[in-house]
Design goal:
Radius of gyration: 17 Å
InterPro entries: Cyclase_SnoaL-like, NTF2-like_dom_sf
Number of strands: 8
Pfam family, one: SnoaL
Strand content: 35-45%
Organism: Petropleomorpha daqingensis
Order of helices and strands: EHHEHEEEEEEHH
CATH class: Alpha Beta
Protein name: Putative ester cyclase
Number of helices: 5
Strand order of the largest sheet: 1-3-4-7-8-2
Structural class: alpha+beta
Helix content: 25-40%
CATH architecture: Roll
CATH topology: Nuclear Transport Factor 2, Chain: A
Number of domains: 1
Length: 186
């Protein structure tokens, strides 16, 4: 096993994985291309918008835009990162402020639920697993503390007023995108 060190070169699998996590918070589209193979798969995107369900850098960048669209001040603190063969594991905390609605989707891409902004901050612990091939990411999995984050943001237990705001936000999202997402994603 190899632990991440600050002196790691840019093709080091741990450095690539860590850069990919930081890119979610602030990387532009060009920053994603050298990190992901064109056939890279994100196994964590079934609840994300259809635009993020495509392989390669385009899908991962769409995920970043989805997160940034809802969470201001987005940043990741990396706690541990190590590699074993072609697998890299990263323990991190995602931090941000919920400033805009975030929509979650069903398997077919339709809007499932929308959480209107609460203005609250959160710190979500996560572990990410990457499989590397040819110095780039080819697969990604994650475990996140979604329940803890939902509590921090006031999504659960929901107040009657917040349930009303959720229903109103979902109606707006459905009117804006249709039941299956933006017209370009249908």
């Amino acid at each position: 096993m190899t632990a991440h060190t600050p002196s790691a070169v840019s093709t080091d699998p741990v450095a690539v994985a860590v850069r990919s996590i930081h890119a979610m918070a602030d990387g532009d589209r060009a920053a994603f291309t050298p990190l992901y193979r064109p056939d890279a798969v994100d196994h964590e995107n079934p609840v994300q918008p259809p635009s993020s369900r495509v392989p390669g850098a385009d899908g991962f960048y769409a995920t970043a835009l989805w997160l940034r669209g809802a969470f201001a001040e987005l940043r990741y603190d990396i706690h541990h990162a190590l590699a074993d063969g072609d697998l890299v594991a990263v323990s991190a905390t995602m931090n941000g402020r919920h400033t805009a609605p975030i929509a979650f989707h069903t398997d077919d891409g339709s809007v499932d639920s929308v959480f209107p902004p609460t203005g609250r901050t959160f710190a979500m612990t996560q572990s990410h697993w990457f499989r590397m091939q040819d110095g780039r990411i080819v697969e990604h999995w994650a475990n996140r503390d979604d329940l803890g984050t939902a509590r921090q943001l006031g999504w659960i237990p929901p107040s009657p007023a917040y349930l009303f705001r959720m229903a109103r936000a979902k109606r707006r999202a459905l009117r804006a995108t249709g039941p299956r997402g933006p017209a370009s994603g249908r």
